[in-house]
Protein backbone atom coordinates (compact mmCIF):
# COMPACT_ATOMS: atom_id res chain seq x y z
CA UNK A 1 0.00 0.00 0.00
CA UNK A 2 1.32 3.45 -0.92
CA UNK A 3 1.60 5.79 2.12
CA UNK A 4 -1.02 8.51 1.98
CA UNK A 5 -3.69 6.53 0.17
CA UNK A 6 -7.13 5.88 1.64
CA UNK A 7 -10.69 5.14 0.59
CA UNK A 8 -11.08 8.50 -1.16
CA UNK A 9 -7.59 8.88 -2.67
CA UNK A 10 -5.87 6.10 -4.53
CA UNK A 11 -2.23 6.02 -5.66
CA UNK A 12 -2.99 7.65 -9.00
CA UNK A 13 -4.86 10.60 -7.44
CA UNK A 14 -2.14 10.99 -4.80
CA UNK A 15 0.53 11.19 -7.48
CA UNK A 16 -1.52 13.83 -9.30
CA UNK A 17 -1.88 15.91 -6.11
CA UNK A 18 1.85 15.75 -5.42
CA UNK A 19 2.56 16.89 -8.97
CA UNK A 20 0.23 19.91 -8.59
CA UNK A 21 1.53 20.87 -5.14
CA UNK A 22 5.17 20.11 -5.81
CA UNK A 23 7.82 22.26 -7.46
CA UNK A 24 7.22 25.23 -5.13
CA UNK A 25 9.30 26.67 -2.33
CA UNK A 26 8.50 25.79 1.31
CA UNK A 27 8.10 28.71 3.77
CA UNK A 28 7.97 28.83 7.56
CA UNK A 29 5.66 30.99 9.72
CA UNK A 30 7.80 34.10 9.34
CA UNK A 31 7.89 33.77 5.55
CA UNK A 32 11.47 32.59 5.20
CA UNK A 33 12.26 29.95 2.65
CA UNK A 34 13.33 26.75 4.37
CA UNK A 35 13.41 24.69 1.17
CA UNK A 36 14.03 26.14 -2.27
CA UNK A 37 11.88 25.28 -5.23
CA UNK A 38 13.16 22.84 -7.77
CA UNK A 39 15.89 24.33 -10.01
CA UNK A 40 15.61 27.69 -8.15
CA UNK A 41 18.49 27.66 -5.70
CA UNK A 42 19.51 31.08 -4.33
CA UNK A 43 23.13 30.29 -3.56
CA UNK A 44 25.43 33.18 -4.32
CA UNK A 45 27.90 32.71 -7.19
CA UNK A 46 31.19 31.24 -6.05
CA UNK A 47 29.80 29.45 -2.98
CA UNK A 48 29.40 26.15 -4.79
CA UNK A 49 32.09 23.50 -4.84
CA UNK A 50 34.58 23.88 -7.66
CA UNK A 51 36.99 21.35 -9.12
CA UNK A 52 40.63 22.12 -8.50
CA UNK A 53 42.34 23.11 -11.77
CA UNK A 54 44.90 20.47 -12.55
CA UNK A 55 46.42 19.20 -15.76
CA UNK A 56 45.98 15.61 -14.56
CA UNK A 57 42.31 15.74 -15.57
CA UNK A 58 43.44 15.95 -19.22
CA UNK A 59 46.07 13.19 -19.11
CA UNK A 60 45.71 9.47 -19.73
CA UNK A 61 44.11 7.63 -16.84
CA UNK A 62 45.38 4.10 -17.54
CA UNK A 63 48.36 3.53 -19.80
CA UNK A 64 50.33 0.39 -20.60
CA UNK A 65 53.62 -0.05 -22.37
CA UNK A 66 53.97 -2.21 -25.45
CA UNK A 67 56.36 -4.65 -23.78
CA UNK A 68 53.94 -5.20 -20.90
CA UNK A 69 51.13 -5.78 -23.37
CA UNK A 70 53.24 -8.31 -25.28
CA UNK A 71 54.16 -10.16 -22.08
CA UNK A 72 50.54 -10.29 -20.97
CA UNK A 73 49.48 -11.52 -24.43
CA UNK A 74 52.04 -14.35 -24.33
CA UNK A 75 51.04 -15.36 -20.80
CA UNK A 76 47.36 -15.30 -21.74
CA UNK A 77 47.97 -17.48 -24.81
CA UNK A 78 49.86 -20.00 -22.66
CA UNK A 79 47.10 -20.21 -20.07
CA UNK A 80 44.37 -20.58 -22.69
CA UNK A 81 45.96 -23.80 -23.95
CA UNK A 82 45.81 -25.36 -20.47
CA UNK A 83 42.35 -26.95 -19.95
CA UNK A 84 42.87 -27.23 -16.18
CA UNK A 85 43.51 -23.52 -15.60
CA UNK A 86 40.72 -21.04 -14.90
CA UNK A 87 40.98 -17.26 -14.83
CA UNK A 88 38.63 -16.25 -12.01
CA UNK A 89 39.31 -12.50 -11.91
CA UNK A 90 39.55 -10.81 -15.25
CA UNK A 91 41.98 -7.92 -15.66
CA UNK A 92 40.64 -4.44 -16.34
CA UNK A 93 42.54 -4.46 -19.61
CA UNK A 94 40.17 -4.92 -22.57
CA UNK A 95 40.55 -8.40 -24.01
CA UNK A 96 40.25 -7.00 -27.53
CA UNK A 97 43.74 -5.52 -27.14
CA UNK A 98 45.19 -9.01 -26.69
CA UNK A 99 44.31 -10.18 -30.17
CA UNK A 100 47.25 -10.53 -32.49
CA UNK A 101 47.22 -7.59 -34.90
CA UNK A 102 48.76 -9.83 -37.58
CA UNK A 103 45.61 -11.96 -37.61
CA UNK A 104 43.22 -9.03 -37.46
CA UNK A 105 41.04 -8.63 -40.56
CA UNK A 106 41.93 -5.75 -42.84
CA UNK A 107 40.62 -4.33 -46.06
CA UNK A 108 42.63 -5.29 -49.16
CA UNK A 109 41.69 -2.15 -51.07
CA UNK A 110 45.15 -1.44 -52.46
CA UNK A 111 45.41 -5.00 -53.77
CA UNK A 112 42.26 -4.69 -55.87
CA UNK A 113 42.47 -0.98 -56.72
CA UNK A 114 46.09 0.30 -56.66
CA UNK A 115 46.64 3.99 -56.11
CA UNK A 116 48.34 4.45 -59.48
CA UNK A 117 45.42 2.90 -61.36
CA UNK A 118 42.87 4.97 -59.46
CA UNK A 119 44.38 8.47 -59.44
CA UNK A 120 46.78 10.33 -61.70
CA UNK A 121 47.34 10.25 -65.46
CA UNK A 122 47.27 6.41 -65.56
CA UNK A 123 43.87 6.17 -63.91
CA UNK A 124 41.75 3.35 -65.31
CA UNK A 125 38.51 4.04 -63.54
CA UNK A 126 35.50 3.72 -65.78
CA UNK A 127 32.86 6.37 -65.75
CA UNK A 128 29.24 5.27 -65.42
CA UNK A 129 27.56 4.81 -68.78
CA UNK A 130 23.96 5.99 -68.90
CA UNK A 131 21.70 5.27 -71.84
CA UNK A 132 19.61 8.37 -71.16
CA UNK A 133 20.36 12.05 -71.60
CA UNK A 134 17.94 13.65 -69.13
CA UNK A 135 16.02 12.92 -65.96
CA UNK A 136 12.74 12.74 -67.86
CA UNK A 137 14.06 9.93 -70.06
CA UNK A 138 15.38 8.13 -66.98
CA UNK A 139 11.95 8.40 -65.30
CA UNK A 140 10.18 7.18 -68.44
CA UNK A 141 12.48 4.18 -68.75
CA UNK A 142 12.08 3.32 -65.05
CA UNK A 143 8.28 3.47 -65.29
CA UNK A 144 8.39 1.24 -68.35
CA UNK A 145 10.48 -1.38 -66.52
CA UNK A 146 8.05 -1.34 -63.61
CA UNK A 147 5.05 -1.81 -65.91
CA UNK A 148 6.71 -4.64 -67.85
CA UNK A 149 7.81 -6.50 -64.70
CA UNK A 150 6.14 -9.87 -64.16
CA UNK A 151 6.52 -11.71 -60.89
CA UNK A 152 5.85 -15.08 -62.51
CA UNK A 153 8.92 -14.70 -64.75
CA UNK A 154 11.32 -13.61 -61.98
CA UNK A 155 13.42 -16.67 -61.12
CA UNK A 156 15.05 -15.03 -58.10
CA UNK A 157 11.75 -14.00 -56.54
CA UNK A 158 10.25 -17.45 -57.13
CA UNK A 159 13.25 -19.13 -55.51
CA UNK A 160 12.91 -17.00 -52.35
CA UNK A 161 9.11 -17.20 -52.22
CA UNK A 162 7.37 -18.90 -49.32
CA UNK A 163 5.71 -22.09 -50.59
CA UNK A 164 4.52 -23.27 -47.17
CA UNK A 165 1.11 -21.67 -47.60
CA UNK A 166 1.67 -19.28 -44.68
CA UNK A 167 1.10 -15.63 -45.48
CA UNK A 168 3.05 -12.64 -44.21
CA UNK A 169 0.31 -11.61 -41.82
CA UNK A 170 0.47 -10.28 -38.29
CA UNK A 171 2.64 -12.31 -35.96
CA UNK A 172 1.47 -13.14 -32.48
CA UNK A 173 3.44 -11.68 -29.57
CA UNK A 174 4.03 -15.09 -28.00
CA UNK A 175 6.41 -16.06 -30.82
CA UNK A 176 8.71 -13.17 -29.93
CA UNK A 177 8.67 -13.71 -26.17
CA UNK A 178 12.05 -14.17 -24.55
CA UNK A 179 13.89 -12.19 -27.22
CA UNK A 180 13.63 -8.67 -25.81
CA UNK A 181 16.60 -6.45 -25.04
CA UNK A 182 16.03 -6.92 -21.31
CA UNK A 183 16.32 -10.71 -21.63
CA UNK A 184 19.54 -10.35 -23.62
CA UNK A 185 20.90 -8.00 -20.96
CA UNK A 186 20.18 -10.53 -18.22
CA UNK A 187 21.87 -13.24 -20.32
CA UNK A 188 25.06 -11.22 -20.71
CA UNK A 189 25.04 -10.48 -16.96
CA UNK A 190 25.09 -14.22 -16.30
CA UNK A 191 27.88 -14.70 -18.85
CA UNK A 192 30.03 -11.96 -17.31
CA UNK A 193 29.66 -13.40 -13.81
CA UNK A 194 30.38 -17.03 -14.80
CA UNK A 195 33.64 -18.86 -15.43
CA UNK A 196 32.15 -21.93 -17.12
CA UNK A 197 29.11 -21.66 -19.40
CA UNK A 198 27.04 -24.76 -20.22
CA UNK A 199 25.21 -24.44 -23.54
CA UNK A 200 22.27 -26.87 -23.66
CA UNK A 201 21.51 -28.11 -27.18
CA UNK A 202 18.56 -30.09 -28.45
CA UNK A 203 19.77 -33.45 -29.76
CA UNK A 204 17.10 -33.38 -32.48
CA UNK A 205 18.50 -30.14 -33.94
CA UNK A 206 21.87 -29.19 -32.40
CA UNK A 207 22.82 -26.65 -35.05
CA UNK A 208 19.43 -24.96 -34.89
CA UNK A 209 19.60 -24.47 -31.10
CA UNK A 210 23.10 -22.99 -30.99
CA UNK A 211 23.38 -19.30 -30.14
CA UNK A 212 26.06 -17.96 -32.47
CA UNK A 213 25.99 -14.49 -30.92
CA UNK A 214 26.96 -15.84 -27.50
CA UNK A 215 29.72 -18.00 -28.98
CA UNK A 216 31.12 -15.04 -30.90
CA UNK A 217 30.99 -12.85 -27.79
CA UNK A 218 32.82 -15.46 -25.70
CA UNK A 219 35.48 -15.97 -28.36
CA UNK A 220 36.17 -12.26 -28.79
CA UNK A 221 35.61 -10.66 -25.38
CA UNK A 222 35.79 -13.56 -22.89
CA UNK A 223 38.32 -15.94 -24.37
CA UNK A 224 39.39 -17.05 -20.88
CA UNK A 225 35.96 -18.52 -20.14
CA UNK A 226 35.10 -22.15 -20.90
CA UNK A 227 32.08 -23.16 -22.98
CA UNK A 228 30.60 -26.66 -22.67
CA UNK A 229 27.98 -28.04 -25.06
CA UNK A 230 25.42 -30.36 -23.45
CA UNK A 231 23.11 -32.48 -25.61
CA UNK A 232 19.61 -32.75 -24.19
CA UNK A 233 16.76 -35.16 -25.10
CA UNK A 234 19.16 -37.81 -26.43
CA UNK A 235 16.57 -40.53 -25.77
CA UNK A 236 14.32 -39.14 -28.52
CA UNK A 237 16.72 -39.93 -31.38
CA UNK A 238 18.32 -43.22 -32.50
CA UNK A 239 21.65 -44.19 -31.00
CA UNK A 240 23.36 -44.32 -34.41
CA UNK A 241 22.36 -40.75 -35.12
CA UNK A 242 23.53 -39.66 -31.67
CA UNK A 243 26.96 -41.25 -32.09
CA UNK A 244 27.45 -39.77 -35.54
UniProtKB/TrEMBL annotation:
<feature type="domain" description="Nucleolar GTP-binding protein 2 N-terminal">
    <location>
        <begin position="19"/>
        <end position="149"/>
    </location>
</feature>
<keyword id="KW-0539">Nucleus</keyword>
<protein>
    <recommendedName>
        <fullName>Nucleolar GTP-binding protein 2</fullName>
    </recommendedName>
</protein>
<dbReference type="Pfam" id="PF08153">
    <property type="entry name" value="NGP1NT"/>
</dbReference>
<keyword id="KW-0342">GTP-binding</keyword>
<dbReference type="InterPro" id="IPR027417">
    <property type="entry name" value="P-loop_NTPase"/>
</dbReference>
<dbReference type="GO" id="GO:0005525">
    <property type="term" value="F:GTP binding"/>
</dbReference>
<dbReference type="InterPro" id="IPR012971">
    <property type="entry name" value="NOG2_N_dom"/>
</dbReference>
<keyword id="KW-0547">Nucleotide-binding</keyword>
<dbReference type="GO" id="GO:0005730">
    <property type="term" value="C:nucleolus"/>
</dbReference>
<comment type="similarity">
    <text>Belongs to the TRAFAC class YlqF/YawG GTPase family. NOG2 subfamily.</text>
</comment>
<dbReference type="InterPro" id="IPR050755">
    <property type="entry name" value="TRAFAC_YlqF/YawG_RiboMat"/>
</dbReference>
<comment type="function">
    <text>GTPase that associates with pre-60S ribosomal subunits in the nucleolus and is required for their nuclear export and maturation.</text>
</comment>
Amino acid sequence: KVPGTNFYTDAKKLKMKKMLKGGKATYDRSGKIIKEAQFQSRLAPGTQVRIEPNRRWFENTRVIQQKDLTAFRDAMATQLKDPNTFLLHRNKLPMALLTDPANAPRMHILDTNPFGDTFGPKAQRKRPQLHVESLNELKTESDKKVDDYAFDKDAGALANADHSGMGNGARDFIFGAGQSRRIWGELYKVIDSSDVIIHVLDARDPEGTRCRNVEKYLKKECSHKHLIFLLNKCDLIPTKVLVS
